[in-house]
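Example record for the data management plan.
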Amino acid sequence: MASRNAPNLTVGQAEALKQMDLDKIMRAYVQTAISSMTGYKALLLDKETMRACSTLFGRSELADSGVVHIERLDASETPQPHPELKALLYVRPTRENINLLKKELRAHRFQHLSVFFTNLLSPIYLQELAEADAAKEYIKEVQEFYGDFSVQDSQQFTVQCPRNDVFLSATSSLSASSSALEYELIDRCVQGISAVFLAVRRRPVIRYQSGSGPVQKLAESLYSLMYKQQYQVFDFGSRSSPVLLILDRNDDPVTPLLMQWTYQAMIHELLGIHDNTAKLTSPKVVADQREVVLDARSDEFFRKHAMLNFGEVGMSVKALMEQYQRTESEHRKVESLDDMRRFMSEHLDFTRLQGNVTKHINIMSELSDTVKTRSLLDISEMEQELASPATNVSAATSLDDLMRVTRLPNVLDKDKVRLAMLYALRFEDDTLRIRQLQDYLTSAGIKDREPRLCAALDAVLRTAGQARRAGDLFASRSIMGKARSMFKGLQGVDNVYTQHTPLLTATLTSLSTDKLEGQAYPFMAASQDEGYGYAATFKRSPPREVVVFIVGGTTHEEAKAVAEWNDRNPHMRVILGGSGVLNSGSF
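Corresponding structural encoding:
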């Protein structure tokens, strides 16, 4: 039988559980699975768990735990037998993986198997495995270690959806005519989010953004799973219930459209980050240095600077270069046996420093060249004026400024369309000028060159216009919103390129002060009385733990906002999750 007992945790790991530190919790789970098998072993993963494990562990760290061979369970090439090794499988409990596992049982390539599933295992699947293994008893154990998601850091996770774009173009309601793919994607989110709460051993109270079909369906499915189908599994006794707040990406279409100026966000926007890896394209960089790994666990510089702005990172890269030059100078002074001994003991650290310096100089150089070539400083200033409620701009003046900026040399079509989308969202009621803008894009040849890109202007109003949004995106619906916007404008800003604040910050503030509108963000409950009960509970005492999940994906700017929130507000810890991590291109 599959065991549903989560691994025993050490004192430090128990503290991580108390703090809902996803990084430490998931590392503890995987390490427990690996250490349950003595000696040298193979680790078999599927596509999703390969991605998840790569963000948690380096190969050298796994090797220290006896893992000498790693492969994909669904590898296309014919796998080689390894009778000298035991095998540990860490995979999702899907139909495809069950079939592959039964195939593995027939092949009998290892001494024996220990199987760890990342989520609740269907009794039907367990029965199939038992029948397939009845004669040989090749499987020594089957357990559920909940990790059906990817950890970005201690306070951020993603549930990777293969067609996240479907959420971004979804209609306001799901019906019988909605595609089967939409329902499959929602089921994938259910699996990932439920695994998060099983991992942190909590059952949440669910709130969701009204008016969004995918969000409401996700909330209903999670409630059914946690409060009806698997009530006992999610019963963790007297442990407090966090709030799970489910939002629609289209409620804030502005944030993913903006050029970001923090280090990690810039890399993702201009180069793209996939599974902690980015690819440089500059011919100035030698071929074997163009693929760079961005792992906060092994790269101290990246860990410290991921959320700092471009200028600060530039100064730090300069300081890192100077440190390298000093170290290199010291290494040249090898005149005695003691110097040789010192050189050899420090050589590995020096080589690592050299590689790190080269990597970040190459990244910063390419980012800087791209910013200059594409006139991104001018574009970003225009974006911020359109995106920030505190800026007092008119539709007419903004249109003139937009035309001027988009006529600058080397401005890409996608940057012109991004500005047009931001303009349309800010001045949605001015249909005449939006039509002028569409005509301008057509006359510039964009419609002929990039018809799908040009169509995005209409699409953003259809899927994320005023009628679709629950939040007060431009702080214009209420007197308090206008007052906050005015006050921010009077205060001024330190940097014209970072005026914008994600809508998520205002949403969290409202949630923490019991001012989040009940009609726009209702509780998911079986009855009206149950909903009133939740509202009364959190009115007396605001939630101390909140998990926000954005259907359609999160951004690095929102991750930074959550990190800053947690630093400022120890009374309410927030974890951010989504169906992907976006840049303007993927949005």
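Summary line stored alongside the record: Confidence is low (pLDDT under 50) at residues 1-5, 479-493.
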